[in-house]
Amino acid sequence: MAELDQRIQEAKEQLDAHAVEIVKWHFSPETGSQFWLDWAKEANWDPAGEITCFDDINAKFPHFEDEWLRDLQPEVWVPKEFEGQPFNIFETGGTTGMPKQRIGWNDYKVDYSEFSDSLNDEEFPRNHYWLMVGPTGPRRLRLSIEHLANVRGCSCYFVDLDPRWVKRLISEKQFDQAKAYMDHVVDQATTIMKNRSVSALFTTPKLLESIAERYESEGSSLYEAGIRGVFCGGTTMDPQYTRFLVEELLENKIGFKPTYGNTLMGLAKHKPFTPEDKFSITYHAPQPRAVLRVVNPDTDDLVEYEEWGRVELTTLTREFFMPRFLERDEAIRRPPIELYPWDGVAEVRPFGAMQKKIVEGVY
Amino acid sequence: MINIPVLRWGEPYESLDTDEVIHHRTGEVLAKVGQANPGLLARDMRKAKLAREALREIPIKDLVEMMKKAGDLYLNATLPLGDGEQSPNDFARQQSASTGLPEHMCKFNMEKNHFVLNNMDQILDALTRGLDIDILQRGFGVEERGVPVSYQAQSPVLGMVLPSNSPGVHTLWMPVIPMQIGLVLKPGPQEPWTPYRMFAAFTEAGVPRQCMGIYPGGGDMGAETVARCGRVMIFGSTQTVKQYSGNEQVQVHGPGYSKILLGDDVVDQWEDHLDLMADSIYKNSGRGCINCSGVWASRHTEEIAEALAERVGRYEVKDPTDPEAGLAAFTVPGQAEAVWGMIEEGCEENGTTHVTEKHGARLEQMERCDYIRPTILHCDSPDLKMANTEYMFPFTSVVKCPQEKMIEKIGGTLVASAITNDEAWAAQLTDATNIDRLNIGPLPTIALNWLQPHEGSIVDFLFRARAYQTPDERLKARCGK
Description:
The structure holds two protein chains of two kinds.
Chain A: H1 2-27, H2 34-43, H3 47-50, H4 54-60, H5 66-71, E1 88-91, E2 101-104, H6 107-116, E3 129-134, H7 140-151, E4 155-160, H8 163-171, H9 175-195, E5 200-203, H10 205-217, E6 229-233, H11 239-249, E7 255-262, E8 266-270, E9 282-284, E10 290-295, E11 308-316, E12 321-334, E13 344-350
Parallel strand pairs in A: 3-4, 3-5, 5-6, 6-7
Antiparallel strand pairs in A: 1-2, 7-8, 8-9, 9-13, 10-11, 11-12, 12-13
Chain B: E1 2-4, E2 6-8, E3 11-13, E4 18-22, E5 29-34, H1 38-44, H2 48-56, H3 60-76, E6 79-81, E7 84-86, H4 88-99, H5 103-118, H6 120-127, H7 133-138, E8 140-142, E9 148-153, E10 157-161, E11 182-186, H8 193-204, E12 212-214, H9 219-228, E13 231-235, H10 238-243, E14 250-253, E15 258-262, H11 274-282, E16 292-297, H12 301-312, H13 335-347, E17 352-354, E18 363-365, E19 370-372, E20 375-379, E21 395-400, H14 403-409, E22 413-419, H15 423-431, E23 435-440, H16 458-462, E24 463-466, H17 472-479
Parallel strand pairs in B: 1-5, 10-11, 10-13, 11-12, 13-14, 15-16, 15-22, 16-21, 20-21, 22-23
Antiparallel strand pairs in B: 2-3, 4-5, 6-7, 8-9, 9-24, 17-20, 18-19
Helix pairs in contact in B: 1-9, 3-5, 3-8, 4-5, 11-12
């Protein structure tokens, strides 16, 4: 316990130092972006001088407004240091209308290179082939997965799924069309899997279920198809559903890596399952580059451990600073662990899921 | 508190997701019911044919005997339930506590289920219109009149998406097992009791456990049951009925809109039929689709409404354990208030009168549940909004309508009790396709003859009768005829 406490303390000190450095970077005229320099002027305080630790960010910054990422042109976010360098423009997932956009250069490579260290070679063999079945298009995920595969010496096939179209179909109650679209995606995925050698699969839970069902209806299985490791993310996976995926679809033989990530944060890692977890998935943000907190939506205070609250994200990289963004998710706050000595977020689901029906769709 | 697992072809599966079944008055947790995710059913359905194969190993006549034994066990025995056990009294108490139905009505429903199971041979005879049961078993045979015929099962299992609020519907699926068809049951969240008790009684009586699956869950589980089972029976609103109209795989049991029609030849003697009308409205909590929701006549409607209001309007809310309790609680938060809001809105229309108003407030709200006391409206035209409505409590509109317009204006009607001696009108009623079950004469809408076809033909739904030709020698060798 003393060792864990020490690691928690070290992680906190690292986060505090990182927070100070990043705020200085974005709010200094020599290095900062136009947006944050103008913001500080209007707010009439000096973040570069006044932020001395991560808690100061929570105390002094308001919530980041997602409209800024929709309404403003991307160049306002370019830190001076990156001026003149073309950037990637990444968009968030399944929104309709003008999407949120985040620009970037190397952040995604850093996130996914680090993530590779959490994979083992048996489940995700090196120098082999991957398949991603999910939202590609303008999303960071597409390049990130390819980078992750490349870092491990692998190449990656892709089958696209447009979540915006799926959401629209479901909102308009065109369930037959939504199912037909999913079948179309599954057709493409299984065609690749049957004609090419693929050992790792990145997809969404519902698509994983459909792909597995397709194989099983033909008397085969994902394992027999050669799959040894699966990344899964994008929609809710409660403990029972996770257990179903692990025990029934993956037959306890295929490695399972649930992921929680998005264009604004990067990629959170999950706490390796123990029997005590009972398939409850806990994610830990890629701290100190991003910090996830679970807060009371009414007071903004952290909730107690094992209590539900809204997920709040702070992103702290030289490419992008985003303080206290309220995600459209809720989660259970979980304590630090040896591997990730900072808070985790568990059983993530759409914010308000208990109160109203949320369109998550088939993707 | 009992923990109740998902049953996957009879095998318990401890889900990590559970739903609490709550006592509607005290808030006590009566049971924790494991919730199935839809994928479980999707996978299990690949083995659905094993359910029918297991049942086909057993002759139908033996299954019928098992049903009789199961009926006795269901009514009288203490049976296993999840990690505990359940006596008949426990069952009635638990069902009453979660559904809001008075305990004595739950016991009455037990008797009804027992009757169906105990008379399964006659019920099957009624449902098949006297078909030699061996023909169902074999798939083909020779009818009494000497004609070869084949009955082909259209699905190895029947899916049932069951409601929470009406324990009476369970009689519909009881004849399925002896017809050698398996069952996939998705219980209503507040009424897991009957499916699990029936499963325990069936298996104790010798029915193979692998012929039944019970998959509790939310709306997505219901949708999966509809999507995966070749034949499925669901219960829902008029909108649900429309949604599945023309879908031969789905049989929807919607609202009944059952009615009493008083002919011009008897309407002047309406007082003779007051008891019959009141019983049809009020008995068994007025919740069933066969309870009367409309009394139609060409004259005296104001007096009929006043007399019915006098008769049923005084009934008070009583504790569900009281043998005199006649009303069932609304256990879904906000539901009674919403229903009452609709009725009040409907009464704003000119020509609609709330006749029970003088007998005190109808909506009674409690801490965890609500009640609506029996309500009688008067509508002076069949075109008024409230002239053709149905709610899950004793509610009736007394509607003024000329006899010659009644058949057209009543719309879809599950049970019509037409009190008349006018044979010309009776003939028109007999031909009316908008009436499902027809009573001619002074019979309450709730009277049911189990030996007649009822609630859609389950045999026609599960089996396809088709031509079947084969040499006489083979017929004789296989069928003995």
